[in-house]
Every structure is written in structure tokens, then in C-alpha cells.
């Protein structure tokens, strides 16, 4: 929930609260300030990064602007404390902060330190309130998950009863209750992990009342249309309608340079196309057993998509507008249904395996919804799309041939645009041509990715 939410808004008492990090300084105008009543709930509280500073600010106003920003790997020395049970006296962690504590709040003690942050971990002597300046939620803090488990299970005494099978059962029941016995759903599918899993879950819930629609936006990879058809129809038994709207998208993108504007245009047209496809499907189904209004639009939105789309005042800094969220028009004929909205990518893959989706589909590399539009820097032309499409295919084929595909989380080619040409040699002659970027990355988390050198 929002960090600025009032305790009176809670309809239930949580086992504990984690105050997440964020991009703010406590001194910034509009920086989120906690409801003081949070600290009177008598439940465990863990502040992470800005969350630690928010705790310290509440009790002592002792946060100062740091003279040296701490960003990247750090070694934290820890004291014996239940938050660090089983972790040893030194931890490799990921830091990302500018402000820091100038002193301990009253009745707090330091439980972790670094050379630059003498109060990298704090704990109240009287109440179960803790703070850590580093980020346990990212893969760059190898034992971070254990810290979170120590807090949630060891300190908050939360029960570990959630299972993916239970999620599937509850979500199918929720979908059926939401859609009703005759409701029709149109699904935005791309062949990627998220939309494929969402489509399979929806098909499990309502069967043929789910209409999967794939839009060819002219910004796809080589052979993408055929691959999606094979995946959805042959492998998963889902009926699929393919809409070729490529020229419509490309016309709307003429002259567009900014990636954010490209995303919004593509998101808007996606919704328009789905609405039109839904109307056509309704007309074709009139008088049959599938007759009925299509009222719902399925999207494979994940929780990171939601985070990326919240504005600073919301209050998480906008990184990019996600095409599944930020591009939606204010007035829609179709209502959104997003069964994966509270899941992360690793959880979606577990869900897919639970639904018996083949592993090769679940481990496909991510491909952005706006497609090659954001892998061509600057203005988009058919010629540039052809170049980046062919380059991407050659690159991915080489990675597969080397047996590296499953060891890499993401790999892609991008065309750097007319303004970034470079001198080269072709046939012993000098040339001055467009530059291609090839990038690979390995990630254990959707929060951070390590760039790999491309040979």
C-alpha cells in the first residue's frame, strides 16, 4: 500500500510492515512522510534504505545530506541480532543512498555498519522496529532473501501457507465470479511469458469465452507472428485471432523520437485495436453459443510494470510508462482484468509450470511490448526496422548455437540511429554507417541486471 496511507485506512491488522526504499531525500519537497500512528500499531516494522531514514526522522529528525553518495557493492559488519540469524558477521550488500543518519535515534542501537555508514542497521531497544540502509530485495545482496525471511517468519511469525496451487484455485474462482457465467474476455497476447501465462490461466477459468488476440504491430522480431500462432494454438489449445495492424502503428509513429512518446502511442493504439477486434468477434458470434458482449480486456501486467508506471507523487519515481498501464485512455469500453498484477517474473514462471506450460516457453527472453520501436533510437523507418530485426535474429541464433540462451536473461540488438554513425571498413574501403548495439545481461532478479561483455 502507499507509504503515506493512514492507519485508519487499514481494514485488518498486518503481522508486520516493511517500509521500502525509494528515490527521495527526506529533505525534498513532497517526500513521503509516514503516518505517526504506524509506530503505535505494536507490530514489527522493517525500514529499507529510505524506510530506515523515515524511521529515524520520525524519532529524532537525525537524517543528514551525505557528503559522499554510497552506491554499489559494500561490506556490512553486523552484530549478533535476530534479523541477521545464520548470516555471519559480514555481509556483501547493495547500497544506493545519499542521505544518512547523523546519530542513533533515542533508545536505538546500531546492528550493522560500513565505512561510510556507521548506522547501516539499527534496532529499537524497546519495540520491534528495525532499519537497514542497504537493499536486501535485490540479487546483488546474496543473503538478502534470508534477511527478509528472518523478519517475516522469525520476527513477525508469519505463516508460510501460500502456495502457487492455492493461487491458481483462488484466481480462477475470482475470474469466474468477476466475469460471470456469460461474460466474454478478449486477451492481449504476445507470445511472451507474461501474456502466455495469463492467457492459459484465463482459458482454464472460462474456456472458449476467452478470445485471444494477437496484434501484428509491425514492430516484431523475425518470425514472431508464426511462432505466436504455434505457441497459443498447437501447444496450449487456445483459439487465436491475429490482427495485422502494422501499417496503422507505423503511420502513427512517423517522426516520433522520444521513447516515452512511442510507448504511449503504441499503448493507445493497442487498446483501440483490441476494442475493434472485440466488436468484430461479437458480431461473428451473434446467434451462436458464444454470443454475448465482450466486456473485459486481459493483460499480462506484472507488479514491476505497476511500479514502473507510478509517478513520483504516487510516490515512486517514473522510470518509464508501461504500455500495459500508462498508455490506457481515460475512457475505455473494455474493463481491465490483470490476474498477474501482484506477481513478479519468477513467480509467473512457477505459475506457468503449475499450468503445464512447456519450459521453453516459460524461459523465453523478455521482449518489450512496444517492440522494436524502442530498439531503434530516434525516428523509425522500415529500412531501420529490417536492419535491427535481422541483426537481432543473427545474434539470438548465435547465442542458442553456443548453448548460452538459458544462461542469459536478456539479449538484444538495437540500432543507435542516424545521429550515431561510425567509421568502418567494408571491402578495404572506408564507410560511414549506422551503428548496432548488441547487449546481453544476466539477472537473478527483475530489480537488477548484470551486463555481460559481448564477444
UniProtKB/TrEMBL annotation:
InterPro entries: Class_I_gatase-like (IPR029062), GATASE (IPR017926), GMP_synth_C (IPR001674), GMP_synth_GATase (IPR004739), GMPS_ATP_PPase_dom (IPR025777), NAD/GMP_synthase (IPR022310), Rossmann-like_a/b/a_fold (IPR014729)
Keyword tags: ATP-binding, Glutamine amidotransferase, GMP biosynthesis, Ligase, Nucleotide-binding, Purine biosynthesis
Pfam families cross-referenced by the UniProt entry: GATase, NAD_synthase
UniProt entry tagged with the keyword Magnesium: no
Amino acids binding ATP: 190-196
GO CC annotation terms, alphabetical: cytosol
Subcellular localization: Cytoplasm, Cytosol
Protein name: GMP synthase (glutamine-hydrolyzing)
Organism: Alectoria fallacina
